[in-house]
Design goal:
The chain is an alpha+beta fold and 412 residues long. It is built from 15 helices and 8 strands. It has a 3-stranded antiparallel beta sheet with strand order 3-4-5, covered by helices on one side. The chain has a 3-stranded antiparallel beta sheet with strand order 6-7-8.
């Protein structure tokens, strides 16, 4: 009877995992041992690194085969000084968690022998470069000459038959060695460090877009420490003083819309690529304040930019233009526009080497000179890292030093 009851109760699941023995007509409770729950460790963890200036960098820590692999996402948390910063951080964390989830899925598929469908790794590199060029044109990028120059360099490197799946760490190392040591430019001289760095940047653009298009699974350049060996001296940022801006305003320009676009950039900081693609529908009125809401051409990051009255002064008349029409609809080819700016500056008595981009530098230094803080200036420029804006702070500080040292000259 005892054995029968024990067997019967066991079949019933031990009354919720407890065990009962029958003695005579009584059940004796035997407490079952609780099973120890072992929590599996995540192979990929999201971590935060503190940076100078109060920002924090987000990166993924993947522990695989006894080794840690780090992927810096180039995503940053900013000091939560206001509600806007808190919202920005929340959105950044959400995006970082989405990337982490994607990496976990890819790792799981790889362990299970499942390869992500949609990859076109057997595509020839040159075919992808041509597709990348068309994608850039479709996105509104007018200048694609750098793609052609990169393709020419790759031809000299012997990549005509190279497939996308063959672009690995070894290829990247050989490419770096080629542009730093083997290749000779005009007059048989090695490439300048700036040119070397530009070619690496171009290749990164081409391969990063290939990852987004699921042609390859990753950009192998992210594994190369050799990228750090291309030391490019910090280039001087040419900019205009307030008095020089006034001189340009007073001086006629041979192409009126070039003058308007340049001065508009001086007062709002937009890149010429964004000015070329600016639509009337991108300019929004919020009460008495006008703003621009766009996705920047260079970084593909959103920008919500307030416009000052001085910036609005240089916007062309809208007339009957629709929301889809360009605001600056008669700009010449960019190189030609830069030549017009140089002639215009010369007529104004300005000897500085000016181009469209110096207008953006002018805006940044003007904001800091007039008292705007570094974080606010960074957001107005659309920088993802405050460190990128710090170069302008150095310029402003050097100007302060010059101003203070003028006192010594007066009393010497």
């Amino acid at each position: 009877m005892t054995f029968f009851c024990y067997y019967f109760v066991t079949l019933l699941g031990g009354f919720k995992n407890n065990m009962y023995l029958c003695s005579g007509n009584k059940f004796i409770l035997i407490m079952a041992k609780k099973k120890k729950v072992i929590k599996a460790k995540e192979p990929i963890r999201m971590r935060i690194k503190e940076l100078k200036g109060g920002n924090r960098s987000i990166y993924l820590d993947t522990y695989l085969n006894g080794k840690h692999h780090y992927e810096f996402l180039k995503m940053y948390l900013v000091p939560e000084v206001d509600e806007t910063a808190k919202t920005l951080n929340a959105n950044t964390l959400q995006a970082a968690n989405a990337i982490k989830a994607q990496r976990l899925l890819e790792l799981t598929q790889e362990r299970g022998g499942i390869h992500k469908s949609g990859h076109r790794e057997n595509m020839p590199l040159f075919d992808w470069i041509e597709e990348f060029k068309q994608r850039c044109i479709k996105r509104g990028n007018r200048t694609t000459s750098y793609i052609d120059s990169t393709k020419t360099l790759l031809t000299k490197f012997g990549c005509e038959k190279l497939l996308m799946k063959d672009i690995d760490k070894d290829f990247c190392l050989k490419f770096l060695n080629f542009i730093k040591v083997e290749f000779k430019g005009q007059r048989g001289k090695p490439l300048k460090a700036v040119t070397q760095a530009n070619y690496v940047k171009y290749m990164n653009c081409i391969l990063n877009d290939a990852v987004k298009a699921e042609v390859i699974s990753e950009n192998p350049f992210i594994k190369i420490k050799g990228l750090e060996s291309i030391r490019v001296p910090e280039s001087p940022r040419e900019f205009l003083t307030i008095d020089e801006i006034k001189k340009l305003i007073e001086t006629p320009c041979s192409w009126d819309e070039v003058k308007k676009a340049y001065l508009f950039s001086c007062y709002c900081g937009l890149r010429i690529s964004d000015i070329e693609n600016l639509k009337w529908g991108d300019i929004i009125r919020d009460g008495e304040q006008y703003r621009i809401q766009i996705v920047m051409q260079k970084t593909r990051e959103p920008l919500y930019l307030p416009l000052s009255k001085q910036a609005l002064r240089w916007i062309p008349e809208r007339g009957e233009a629709s929301d889809e029409d360009n605001v600056f609809n008669s700009l010449p080819v960019r190189n030609w526009g830069n030549l017009i700016i140089k002639e215009w500056a010369k007529d104004a008595g300005i000897t500085k080497h000016l181009s469209y981009h110096t207008a953006r530098h002018t805006f940044a230094t003007m904001m800091l000179t007039l008292g705007a803080d570094l974080y606010t200036t960074s957001k107005l420029l659309g920088h993802t890292k405050v460190a990128t804006t710090e170069i302008y702070a150095k310029i402003v500080n050097s100007k302060k030093d010059e101003a203070v040292n003028l006192v010594d000259k007066v009393f010497d």
